[in-house]
């Protein structure tokens, strides 16, 4: 398993795409046409712990499902930092960065496909799952050992929290 080659002590914010990153890149459809996404429990725990530790978290997704919003709010991501129906992700990235007074080098972003590339070129630490598109891999500083929806979120969050001394402290035990 490889480690991220970046000064992870600089990272103040973790931002994620959903489909293909925190959810598998193949989804079932309900009878009414609603996408039914999977979620990875270990990704969820890591995001929840990061929120408890004071890390700034964001979601930028083209998806529109209310279930996605509810999932990430339940993990501690404020609704104002969950960007749904994001047609041009760089605009939402700028809003997130500016509202929190962050510098690009303080932001890690995980994406998997072409709509994520503009954000990945702007943020300090672009990351992707193992099964990301070739174009995304070309702009990533770190490619996770895990596929999207199968632990790549946990991989990057865990590495950041460990370097910052926030992984196995008193807050790690319990929800």
From TrEMBL:
Residues binding Mg(2+): 17, 112
Keyword DNA-binding appears in the UniProt entry: no
SUPFAM superfamilies reported in the protein's UniProt record: HAD-like (SSF56784)
Needed co-factor(s): Mg(2+)
Record key words, sorted: Hydrolase, Magnesium, Metal-binding
Domain of life: Bacteria
One term of GO molecular function: hydrolase activity, acting on ester bonds
Binding site for substrate: 19
InterPro entries: CMP-NeuNAc_synthase (IPR050793), HAD-like_sf (IPR036412), HAD-SF_hydro_IA (IPR006439), HAD_2 (IPR041492), HAD_sf (IPR023214), KdsC_fam (IPR010023)
NCBIfam families reported in the protein's UniProt record: HAD-SF-IA-v1, KdsC-phosphatas
Record note on quaternary structure: Homotetramer.
Family of this protein: Belongs to the KdsC family.
Name assigned to this protein: YrbI family 3-deoxy-D-manno-octulosonate 8-phosphate phosphatase
């Amino acid at each position: 398993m490889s480690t991220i080659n970046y000064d992870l002590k600089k990272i103040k914010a973790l931002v994620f795409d959903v489909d293909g990153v925190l959810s598998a890149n193949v989804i079932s459809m309900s009878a009414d046409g609603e996408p039914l996404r999977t979620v990875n429990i270990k990704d969820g725990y890591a995001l929840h712990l990061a929120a408890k530790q004071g890390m700034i978290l964001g979601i930028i997704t083209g998806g529109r499902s209310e279930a996605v919003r509810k999932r990430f709010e339940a993990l501690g991501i404020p609704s104002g930092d969950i960007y749904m129906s994001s047609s041009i992700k760089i605009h939402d990235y700028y809003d997130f960065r500016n509202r929190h007074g962050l510098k690009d080098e303080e932001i890690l972003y995980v994406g998997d496909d072409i709509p994520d590339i503009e954000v990945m070129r702007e943020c300090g630490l672009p990351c992707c799952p193992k099964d990301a598109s070739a174009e995304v891999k070309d702009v990533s500083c770190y490619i996770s050992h895990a596929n999207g929806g199968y632990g790549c979120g946990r991989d990057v969050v865990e590495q950041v929290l460990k370097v910052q001394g926030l992984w196995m402290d008193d807050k790690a035990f319990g929800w």
